[in-house]
Amino acid sequence: QVYLVESGGGLVQAGGSLRLSCAASGRTVSDYAMGWFRQAPGKEREFVAAIKRWGGGSTYYADSVKGRFTISRDNAKNIVYLEMNNLESDDTAVYYCAASLTFHHIVALELSSNDYWGQGTQVTVSS
């Protein structure tokens, strides 16, 4: 069982930055592919970023955030981060952290009962 708790959300002006944190307990983040997805009011869930558990921690991003967001993992602290820069109003959403043994599950948002995600943290970008 993996327990994930997101933090770091808040209200920021367009062009600003935030760093989200995902603290894991129960298992170490290095044992899982980790990622972030988001959901805005009235919209479908959207994949944001993911990092593999193997392959040196290769990363993958949605086109909408590529070049602005960076996912990273601190195995010693058991935390996954999402550094968000140059934020836009379209980035407003609840951001969720996810863990899976299958990288594809996160990228494709095909999360199952064998995967884990947290309660989310709200990010609001004002224009």
Q: Can you tell me about this structure?
A:
The chain has one helix at residues 103-107; strands at 3-7, 10-13, 18-25, 33-39, 46-51, 59-61, 69-74, 79-84, 93-100, 116-117, 121-126. It is mainly β and 127 residues long. Strands 2, 4, 5, 6, 9, 10 and 11 form a seven-stranded mixed sheet that branches. It is globular, with a radius of gyration of 13 Å. The mean pLDDT is 95.
Class by helix and strand content?
A: mainly beta
Radius of gyration: 13 Å
- What is the N-to-C succession of helices and strands? EEEEEEEEEHEE
Oligomer state equals single chain
The overall pLDDT, averaged over residues, is: 95
What proportion strand? over 45%
Spans of at least 5 consecutive residues whose pLDDT stays below 50 are none
Query: What is the distance, rounded to the nearest whole angstrom, between the alpha carbons of the first and last residues?
Result: 40 Å
Largest sheet: 7 strands, mixed
Extended strand count: 11
- Helicity, in percent? under 10%
Mass-distribution shape: globular
Count of runs of 4 or more consecutive helical residues: 1
